[in-house]
Design brief:
Layout: E1 14-18, E2 25-26, E3 29-30, H1 34-48, E4 52-56, H2 67-70, H3 74-84, E5 88-91, H4 97-104, E6 111-114, H5 132-140, E7 144-147, H6 158-164, E8 169-171, H7 173-186, E9 193-197, H8 206-212, E10 218-221, H9 226-232, H10 247-256, E11 261-262, E12 266-270, E13 280-283, E14 292-296, H11 298-308, E15 313-317, H12 330-339, E16 345-348, H13 351-359, E17 368-369, H14 373-381, H15 386-389
Parallel strand pairs: 1-4, 1-7, 4-6, 5-6, 7-8, 9-10, 9-15, 10-11, 15-16, 16-17
Antiparallel strand pairs: 2-3, 12-13, 12-14
Length: about 400
């Protein structure tokens, strides 16, 4: 078993906590703070134990100097201050004398948030490529490292793998809970077990489809990825999203598992992705050349419901439509209604699906909403998670 924050004496120690504050921010306003709130338990515990708390996180993908203004963590520091009822000192740098002085001057229970770790990506992608010197430098700022960012547990970054390679380390409460909940899906899940997969690309889901097709009873396919499967099945999909390089894979899976892979039978189409644009309800053999499918239709929901009603375990990753756009939100919203009215253990895999759960107020009706979309898929695929593997084992 991996060490956790509870395995260390934190009193007077400088504790670096890698959080996942990768939240949507528009014009300085946080649109969904659920990831911030889920980090509070670990932060509060560290403070209660008398630690000097140093918080780190990435936000967005920083590719240009202009991105630095857009992806600053300052709004997160301000919101954290209110949630913790404690001033969180924000350091708008990722390294340097100002940062080091601020940490040296910390008192027990103080909290500092360091600027977006991906600002280091502007100089040779040092964060994302796990630059060894950067990992060593960040590790030198603390005594103990706690990884509480499940959303990046499958990545080899300087702010997780790099730091953990240099100082004593453990898991935070959020990551510990994520692993416990996801293990329910890998360790003899209760049957019937149905998986819902959506999102844009088949390529993002190949690993989980191939690994779980023999373990799950059914896999229901929606979202943009459904149209690559439909094209492989011989349907005209108009101008819908299609990964042509994955057509042979989809065709092979449909031939090998015709009774397990369940595709939409009708979709909502339009000629553009725009709020309240003119839409059409089409059977999948009726899609016109200039139309693209942007949501599953009502008859597909009826079919999916038949597979879900008696399930004991349901895992869902990827919205089944463009839920952020008015006119294409119904499929995702109604699917939440269906699964929350079953008696199944329901787990939603992070990212856009978690955001949809929050948007439609179903977050508290799901057994577990993961904070990591790609991380949850990687875990279920059974592939190695570098930032988890590096964590010290209990003796």
């Amino acid at each position: 078993m991996k060490k956790t924050i509870k395995d260390y004496d934190l009193s007077g120690k400088k504790v670096i906590i890698r959080c996942d504050f990768n939240v949507p921010i528009e014009n300085g306003i946080i649109k969904d703070e659920s990831r911030i709130k889920k980090s509070l338990k670990t932060i509060r515990y560290a403070r209660k134990q008398g630690a000097k708390v140093i918080l780190m996180s990435h936000l967005g993908r920083v590719k240009t100097i202009e991105d630095k203004e857009k992806y600053t963590l300052k709004p997160v520091a301000e919101r954290l201050s209110k949630l913790l009822r404690k001033k969180v000192k924000f350091i708008n740098e990722t390294r340097g004398q100002n940062l080091e002085n601020a940490i040296d001057n910390m008192k027990d229970k103080d909290v500092i948030l360091i600027e977006n770790t991906r600002f280091e990506d502007l100089d040779g992608k040092k964060e994302s490529n796990n630059d060894k010197e950067l990992g060593k430098y960040w590790a030198s700022l603390g005594d103990i490292f706690i990884n509480d960012a499940f959303g990046t547990i499958h990545r080899s970054h300087a702010s997780n793998l790099g730091i953990a390679s240099n100082i004593p380390n453990g898991l935070g409460f959020l990551v510990e809970e994520e692993i416990k909940k996801l293990t329910k899906l890998t360790n003899k899940p209760r049957k019937p077990y149905t998986i819902i997969l959506g999102g844009a690309k088949v390529s993002d889901k190949i690993g989980v489809i191939s690994n779980l097709i023999t373990k799950a009873d059914y896999i229901l396919i929606g979202g943009g990825m459904a149209f690559t499967f439909l094209k492989a099945a011989g349907f005209n999909i108009g101008s819908s999203l299609c990964e042509r390089e994955k057509l042979s894979y989809c065709k092979e899976m449909l031939e090998n598992y015709p009774d397990k892979l369940i595709l939409p039978i009708d979709v909502i189409t339009a000629t553009e992705i725009k709020d309240n644009t003119k839409t059409h309800e089409r059977f999948i053999n009726e899609i016109e050349e200039d139309e693209m499918g942007l949501d599953i239709g009502p008859r597909t929901l009826e079919v999916f419901k038949q597979y879900l009603d008696d399930c004991k375990t349901i895992f869902w990753n990827g919205p089944v439509g463009c839920f952020e756009t008015k006119g294409f939100e119904n499929g995702t919203k109604e699917l939440f209604e269906i699964i929350t009215n079953t008696k199944a253990y329901t787990l939603v895999g992070g990212g856009d699906t978690a955001r949809a759960a929050t948007t439609f107020n179903y977050e508290n009706k799901i057994s577990h909403v993961s904070t990591g979309g790609g991380a949850s898929l990687a875990f279920l695929e059974g592939i190695e998670l570098p930032a988890l593997k590096i964590i010290n084992e209990k003796k």
